[in-house]
Amino acid sequence: MLLRLHDFFRLRTSPILFFGSAAIVIGFVVLTLLMPTGMGEFFGAGSGWIYDNLGWFYISGVTIFLIFLIYKASGRFGRIKLGADGDEPEHSDIAWFGMLFAAGIGTILMFWAVAEPANHFANPPREGQLGVEPRSMEAANEAMGFTLYHFGLHTWTIFALPGLAFAYFIYKRNLPPRVSSIFQPMLGDKIHGPIGKGIDILAIVGTIFGVAVSIGLGTLQIHAGLANLLGISDSAWNFIMIIAVVTVIATISAVLGVDKGIKRLSNFNIWTAIALLLFVLITGPTVFMLRGMIEWTGVYVSMLPELAFWNDTLADTGWQNGWTIFYWAWTVAWAPFVGIFIARISRGRSVRQFVAGVLGLPTLFTIIWFGIWGAGVFDIELNGDGGLVDTVLDDGVEGALFAFLNEFPLATLTSSIAIMLVGVFFVTSMDSCSLVLDDMCNGYEGKAPLHQRAFWTIAIGTIAAILLTATGEGGLAALQNVALVLGLPFFILGYFMMYNLSRAMREDAGEIGFLRTRRWLKTLPPEEYERRMEETDESLQEAVVAPDYHEGTQPENAPDVDHADQPPIVEQYRVRTGDLPTVGPAQPGGPHVGR
Fold first, then answer.
1. How far is the C-alpha of 456 from the C-alpha of 17, rounded, in Å?
2. pLDDT at position 586, please?
3. Among the four residues 190, 458, 486, 588, which has the most C-beta atoms within 10 Å?
4. Rounded to an integer, what distance in angstroms lies between the CA atom of residue 296 and that of residue 488?
5. Which parts of the chain have pLDDT scores under 70?
């Protein structure tokens, strides 16, 4: 039956994965529309259990993933190419960097640029534990430390781990672009069986719901911006029109593909975002912002070791549930999509380049981004008339960015640009997601029917629109809870990713055995050498004064190193004892011929 449906719609994909995923998504939407309260309570109970019992698991797990990535990148396997050994990167560093943000994090950076520093400034995360006074200078430092923790290395670790695993198994082992491929060392050809298909369906459904949460947040922010500029109402039709326009553009971009669609939009958006950031920097308290950005880099670095393992154990305020744990659980739900997309644009890079780029470049940009926006918030509150934080708390986080821009010149223009930025980030999130979902269902990266690729973009937009308008805030909350619940299995699978990736690298590159190095002779100070010479110490046969090595011990392919000229005292000892050096100074690399 599924095959007949597949042929009827002229698809070219896996019928089980395509229709199985679609059935689950449609079933959830129908049940949510019919029983919004019941569905909300069901998934709310599940997410509540995760918050209460597994917060420690998420906090420690992401840090373990980060340590694993750094270890792999800095070790022997860091030189492995993600692709054939001779492959070169397909995209320039700048284009690659821009597309990293196309996978969804760009929307999040726009949404929380002002909202998170303002929230933590008014409600310090460790107010109960350390007695941090709200709206104080100490609260400002705390706010920036936590904000950078939430959007820096740890968030990108959640994307980088599956991204590295996907890149390795897809391009090094030439396996299908599916989550099940990562388990090939454990499952073998069973990745094509029921277990593999179950993993892939779960990944597809989790990705749809995770991205739909981002779409919902983005829609709320675009609506807040339009309300600020044009005074539009909270009518359901306004939300539907926003989602519809963005979905149409995203569908066109998805049909055009990575190079013509996503790449061009990403490059445009990253440069526009930088231009907006520079405008805020130049027209705002420039020196204060630059000083704050540098200072909060240090705050982040100093707080990171503690926050990486902080669980709010003693104060037990529950603050982490709504922030850190929610971020990690939600992010991991759509990490497979981001991971595959990052893998797709990273072919030809080494493991070390991949990890350094995916962790380092976005984190550096995040520090600059939040450093400037955050400094602007604190300048208004501590050095200006204030009121911004109260506006954010009273009117909601979705309007925080526009309330901030109202404090700067050309507010109408900059707000319009911000709305466009959110919209384009919105578009690149949807179209890149549709490409990845299509590849996951198909099991290959190739030409698929255009209507099949467009289906995923339209489906995501439709789901977000129905849940956001038909059930209001309850629908979005239910969507968030579903993403959290579906994210738990993937968080557990992260540990299997580490095992399978390590095992595959050892199998392909060989176990780490004895590493041959040059064997260097014992180097002694001249006076000690002379003393031992007088004592006729036999150890001088393996000793020199000028550092040198045994000829023939250099590893294969090692660069040439000239032998050192030894001082007369060494030659005197050798002539007197008849001990010939391994090489002579007059003939580097050759036997000693005497003088």
1. 13
2. 34
3. 486
4. 32
5. 101-104, 257-263, 446, 470-476, 478-479, 510-517, 524, 555-558, 561, 578-595
Q: What is the 3-state secondary structure (H, E, C) of 348-364?
A: CCEHHHHHHHHHHHHHH
At residue 460's C-alpha, the angle toward residues 458 and 461, to 5°, is: 65
Are 102 and 265 in contact, with CB atoms under 8 Å apart? yes
Distance CA 441, CA 16 (A): 9
Q: How far is CA 566 from the centre of its chain?
A: 54
**Residue 337 exposed, middle or buried by CB count within 10 Å (0-12, 13-18, 19+):** buried
Instruction: Report the alpha-carbon distance of residue 357 to residue 360 in Å, rounded.
Output: 5
Tokens of 340: 């595959």
DSSP 3-state assignment of 125?
coil
* pLDDT tens digits for range 243-262: 999 888 888 877 776 555 56
* Exposed e or buried b per residue across 226-255, where buried means at least 16 C-beta atoms within 10 angstroms of its C-beta: bbbeeebeeeeebbbebbeebbebbbebbb
Other residues' Cβ atoms within 10 Å of the Cβ of residue 298: 11
* Stretch (H or E) spanning 481: helix 473-509
Closest by CA position to 405, among listed 200, 193, 228, 579: 228
The tokens describing 560, both together, are: 């040439």
DSSP for residue 175: -
Token pair for 345: 């644009």
- Cα maximum dimension of the chain: 101
E strand map for 536-585:
543-544
